[in-house]
Amino acid sequence: AVQCGLVPSLLECLDPEPPVEQQKWSQEQRRKIQLEALSALFQLVQYIPEAFMEAEGNSTVLQLLQATRSREVQKKCLHLLQVAVRMGKAFAEKLGQIGAVGTLVELFTDKDNPMTSRQMCASILATMCKECPANAREFRKKDGVEAMRDEVIYRPGETTDNHLFYSLCVVDCIWNAVIGTRKNEIRFLDAGGLFALLDCLEVAPMILKRQIIGTLADLMEYKKAAKLFTQWNSQVTMKGALRLLLELWQSEQEAAGNLAPDGVIKDLDQPLNPRPARHDEDAESTVTSASRLAGKFRHAKNFADTLGGQSVGGQSTGSANRTTVTKGFERASASAQEHQGSQWLTNGFERDCRAKIYAVLKCIGFECQETLSILERQQMELVKLYPNAVELEMWIKVQESLASRGIKPVSADRQWIEDSVTERKDQAAWVQSIQRQLAVERQREEEAGLDRFYKDLRGRAQIQRMTPSIGYPASQHGPSEDSDEWNPSDVDSP
Asked: Does residue 331 have a pLDDT over 70?
């Protein structure tokens, strides 16, 4: 392909101003040729990106994207740019130099464009601005910060498109194009972006919540953002942001299976990720929970397996799998983009966001102005222990790995490992004791509440028995003289 000059030949078909030999073609013929050329370039740029760069492929595709009125050609151009920008930092810099940021922001803000096209625009912008200050600065000048902030919302019921992937791309764009550039962060905060992220966090599904938490963890390094974080309150439940994070932490702990019914950690050796339960009931509940959550992505996983088993360009199955499947969105064809995204989500399915929650709370402080429930206070104690709990689990894994391979460390190293494990076990035991005290306090409060409830019922029943019935007893001889009832005999006869 390189020797024959295939890439420059294909790019000639994309020139908005056709050469003389193509002027005889009809508009429909040119459109079909452009679609086929874009599909071929989509594959070639992944294997010979240098040839695409030398032939000024970025400029040609961008010019076609600006000039075309065909939705199909527009979508193909975005797919090509989406995979090209991931071929190296030089591609992102080149696209920024030729004005791609402004074009993509304009396409993204145009609500007449399909959601899938706007989703790809956000994805390309995220990759272009990642570790590229010049593109991030251009993104701000083209009002990209405000455009992304307006789309930080999760209302899947308002559209028939896949709103989840769209929201993921928007948050990813904010994470790469806004976070890390101080002027972009200031503009994002002034536009109410932090509150919008927290509003979305409250109602979003778990996979989107984890993406938002990662964005917040980096944004909280800016002190102004940390102050605004404590001022947010839910418009639905009036909960603060800290309580929202503690609820998310609790759900992650329950998913890991490390919470007793009273809210106390089960395993001191594994405070965060306990070993799989051997009892049938625990195993059944764990498998059922995981299956229920993973069921949404089962179809996408089957597609990924099928795609990985096909040969690409004459390569073997393993080679094709390594070069096409494992890179998520980077290697998906146009028709498989959405399914490839599902595979990407599935690959990160088992990753929790407890480390990100700890990073956020460490920046804003573990003290809370609002009153926490006993269950939330139990979880807060474990959040504070998180770094030591991770170290404890790692030391225990080192011990087990050495024992399984029959390696005996020298006495000094063995003593160091044992002291490290003992120290962190003591810290975990201390947290466990605090959680148990809080559990006892919670039980007493519940018992006191039940006692007050029953006392109130008994008091009301006693009052009803002691209070005489109110009303006038019925007379056996008709109405009395003082009765207000009308009697015909009382009327004087004429």
From this structure: no
